[in-house]
Design goal:
The chain is an all-alpha fold. It has helices at 5-17, 21-37, 41-57, 68-75, 89-92, 97-109, 114-132, 138-151.
């Protein structure tokens, strides 16, 4: 399957500019698949670890727009748990089971170690934390991912 990587990267950039973080996450996943198809596991892991970090933080499908109704809810603190409108880990923070299976498979069947997974995850999560102001920091997010990888047999 051939993918126009430049087009996909442009979409990802457009989604992040529009604060469409769920769609941005989906582009990252597809970029990871494309890297994997090219047998570039290191870059696939970079994209997939970014997906995991975003998944844990629970991106909302907001399209970056707060309409008047949502503004009203927010002002009256009906959604007081939402410190960050674009992420809601309490309700949307779930790791994708298929992505966990892919990561676990590659952990068990390639030269990559859990320590290397950690390093790739932390490097990319720190970048996303800085760029997107995600609510869950990289260290507790890594623990969630590591726990899921360890329980998935």
């Amino acid at each position: 399957m051939t993918v126009d990587l430049n087009s996909l990267k442009e979409k990802a950039e457009r989604y992040i500019q529009n604060e469409d973080y769920s769609l941005f996450r989906n582009c990252l996943y597809r970029l990871g698949e494309a890297a994997y198809e090219r047998e570039d596991l290191r870059n696939a892991l970079v994209y997939w670890m970014r997906c995991c970090y975003l998944d844990i933080n629970g991106p909302n499908n907001t399209s970056g727009n707060l309409d008047n109704t949502l503004k009203l809810y927010r002002e009256h603190k009906c959604w007081s748990a939402w410190e960050n409108y674009y992420f809601n880990p309490e309700y949307h923070g779930n790791l994708a089971p298929n992505l966990i299976r892919i990561l676990k498979y590659n952990l068990d069947n390639t030269e990559f170690t859990i320590e290397q997974y950690h390093d790739i995850f932390m490097e990319n999560a720190l970048e996303l934390l800085e760029d997107l102001n995600t609510p869950i920091a990289p260290t507790p997010a890594w623990k969630k991912l590591r726990d899921r990888l360890e329980e998935h047999v």
